[in-house]
Amino acid sequence: KVIIVGLDNAGKTTILYQFLMNEVVHTSPTIGSNVEEIVVKNTHFLMWDIGGQESLRSSWNTYYSNTEFIILVVDSIDRERLSITKEELYRMLAHEV
After folding, report:
1. Which is nearest to 3 in space by CA: 92, 84, 87?
2. Which domains does the chain have, with CATH numbers?
3. Has 18 been annotated as catalytic?
4. In the predicted model, what is the mean pLDDT of residues 48-75?
5. Which comes out higher in pLDDT, residue 72 or 27?
6. Is 9 annotated as a binding residue?
7. N or C: which end of the chain has fewer CB within 10 A?
């Protein structure tokens, strides 16, 4: 299980569907999550793209159980919100599974 997290509009869903379809698709804000199975060199990954709106971030920790990888997507152009991303990263690292 892989979860993809990051602030809203960071590009999480775009990355998920780039992995899945190998193309860029038009997306709209994720409410809750998108789940897709992706196969890379005969290895199956269940990928969860989790909404990044402020109201949803407190629920990220409910997805941590049985997670092998976390992909944190950062919009490096949005410098005004880098500190918020940093806070969310620290919150994830402090969470005990």
Report:
1. 92
2. 2-94 (3.40.50.300)
3. no
4. 94
5. 72
6. yes
7. C
